[in-house]
Request: fold
Amino acid sequence: SNNIVVAIDGYSSCGKSTLAKALAKKLHFIFVDSGAMYRAVTLYFIRNNVDLHNHDQIAAALKDIHLNFHSRDYQTHITLNDEEVSAEIRLMPVSDNVSAVSAIKEVRVEMVKQQQRMGRSKNIVMDGRDIGTVVFPNAQVKLFMTADPKIRAERRFKELSPQNPQITMEEVFENLAHRDYADTTREESPLTRADDAIILDNTDLTPEEQLQFALDKIEPFL
Ligand code: C5P
Reply:
């Protein structure tokens, strides 16, 4: 098939999904936030006390989990077994446990399968940690995003604090540092830059500048 796939990977809170949403909107591509899928699985595991070392429980849980995206406005709208969970998956209980859940091989195998299905025939922008390396190794455009850790924590804090008034900057910074460490050092599909991914350090770039940078890379394939 000749559909276009744009893969955006990088550290936590680097603005991957902000850029992915803007691109999808501009190009009329499908936007998929793969992190939301791992977050929704994590929410299910927490609610159902799934033991992360019990492979039978994990397999049974994965069979019972049905995820759906409703990205009518290029935002992340995800349902877990028909329940809208888009807000709940951003809260700290999920953020604190998602790296452990996403390190489980069976979880990754199932999510990757679903992600590949979404990108089989449609133009798509997907952001995550292993999109350019594992999910779509043949993506036409791969971006690897990074930014200064302090700037990332500030951005994420601003985003979270309106709904979570009790949250502290230290807590956000620690969570990002912990997830980056876990995501880059795990055995299963660690976060790493694909050889052919273009680095986009957005520490000093506005969202508009990032969008233009990415559009310039995608243009030749349109
Ligand atoms: O993108 P977001 O920060 O919401 O992702 C949450 C977590 O899900 C990441 O810290 C990582 O552990 C996991 N993840 C992953 N592979 C992806 C996307 C997210 O392991 N493709």
